[in-house]
């Protein structure tokens, strides 16, 4: 026995479109259709209204998007997209522009949520309805994510890439996503370079104090300072880029408290 | 790795099945999806994490925002099929005080409606 479900009234997006037929068309486009849910379902006291599938692809998966495109599914032109596509983000200020310049092959809509969005933050949304796959390229931003989390996306938690190459690639993606990490890395290298140079200078000064002749000290000064500077720079790079829990085994954290000088407080969750 | 969301809507309740990785590049997408559900009146949300492979602090931030938003709207969120690592992650972040975790989806749907 089947339960017949029904479409709910379309509310949240209706302000951005005309009433009547257009609303009906939109529901068809986003896959909101009448469904039959078996009564034997484990949550049979609830009536499922809609089911949607949405996918955010990373930029690395552009080719995958093309492969998944079904030529049998007619592409929608930009005029048809209009405000309809923006319905996925009703909480955002809706200012949808057709995006012909960047990619003429695919219909796309840019959601300007307060500021222009960079291309690297564009995600690809793939939606499925009864007619097949529809996809589009939409720009989403981190506007709703607190700044602290955007700036310090330390990898924690669940499963991680298994080999070092993937770990480094994953880490590089973080740096690409968050340019401020590059600034932090530069600061870390600069700080450690200065520290290394100062340490080498201290040894040279101690040598002169102990009576080593000036020419000898002068001969070794440049190499020692160079080694100190380079060593400091390498240590800074290691500290910021390599010494990350996503790149190292769990038991390799003995240097964590000694050399991790540039990390700000890592996790503070503003849960009211 | 892409993040794929399957949204199932049951009047006030919505079930979000997360598949893939949540990280900085798609946290905004996830946040927008939650905002969309909330604006559509789905204040009670079940997150099915059986296919969630990884999550970074951006994902936790989105979860914390979702907790705040659902609480403000008189709603609730419940996780189901959460791995031990994810449970540990919620414990470390303190989000376990605000997010219920259940083993099965049916139980989660019952919990979220109470």
TrEMBL record, chain A:
Top-level taxon of origin: Bacteria
Region span, Disordered: 1-20, 57-114
Record key words, sorted: Membrane, Transmembrane, Transmembrane helix
Stretches with biased composition (Acidic residues): 57-71, 96-106
Transmembrane spans: 189-210, 216-238
Protein name (Swiss-Prot/TrEMBL): Uncharacterized protein
TrEMBL record, chain B:
InterPro entries: Anti-sigma_ant (IPR003658), STAS_dom (IPR002645), STAS_dom_sf (IPR036513)
UniProt record similarity statement: Belongs to the anti-sigma-factor antagonist family.
Pfam families per the UniProt record, alphabetical: STAS
Lineage: superkingdom: Bacteria
Domain STAS: 3-112
Annotated protein name in UniProt: Anti-sigma factor antagonist
Gene3D superfamilies xrefs: STAS domain
């Amino acid at each position: 026995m089947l339960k017949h479900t029904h479409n709910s009234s379309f509310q949240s997006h209706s302000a951005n479109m005309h009433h009547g037929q257009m609303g009906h068309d939109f529901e068809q486009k986003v896959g909101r259709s009448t469904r039959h849910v078996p009564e034997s379902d484990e949550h049979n006291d609830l009536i499922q209204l809609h089911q949607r599938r949405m996918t955010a692809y990373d930029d690395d998966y552009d080719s995958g998007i093309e492969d998944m495109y079904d030529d049998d599914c007619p592409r929608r032109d930009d005029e048809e997209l209009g405000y309809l596509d923006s319905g996925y983000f009703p909480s955002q200020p809706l200012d949808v522009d057709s995006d012909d310049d960047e990619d003429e092959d695919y219909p796309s809509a840019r959601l300007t949520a307060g500021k222009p969005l960079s291309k690297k933050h564009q995600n690809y949304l793939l939606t499925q309805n009864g007619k097949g796959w529809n996809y589009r390229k939409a720009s989403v931003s981190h506007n709703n994510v607190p700044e602290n989390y955007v700036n310090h996306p330390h990898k924690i938690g669940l499963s991680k890439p298994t080999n070092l190459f993937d770990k480094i690639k994953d880490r590089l993606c973080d740096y690409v996503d968050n340019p401020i990490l590059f600034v932090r890395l530069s600061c870390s290298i600069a700080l450690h370079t200065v520290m290394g140079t100062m340490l080498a200078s201290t040894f040279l000064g101690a040598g002169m104090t102990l009576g080593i002749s000036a020419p000898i000290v002068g001969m070794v000064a440049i190499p020692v300072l160079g080694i100190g500077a380079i060593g400091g720079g390498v240590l800074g790079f290691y500290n910021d880029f390599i010494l990350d829990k996503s790149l190292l085994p769990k038991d390799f954290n003995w240097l964590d408290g000694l050399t991790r000088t540039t990390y700000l407080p890592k996790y503070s969750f503003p849960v009211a | 790795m892409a993040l794929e969301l399957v949204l199932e809507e049951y009047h006030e309740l919505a079930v979000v099945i997360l598949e893939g990785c949540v990280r900085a590049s798609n946290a905004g997408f996830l946040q927008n999806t939650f905002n969309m559900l909330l604006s559509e009146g789905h204040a009670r949300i079940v997150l099915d994490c059986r296919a969630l492979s990884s999550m970074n602090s951006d994902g936790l931030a989105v979860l914390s925002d979702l907790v705040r938003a659902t609480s403000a709207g008189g709603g609730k969120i419940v996780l189901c099929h959460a791995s031990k690592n994810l449970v540990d992650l919620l414990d470390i972040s303190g989000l376990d005080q605000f997010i219920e975790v259940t083993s099965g989806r049916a139980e989660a749907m019952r919990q979220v409606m109470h």
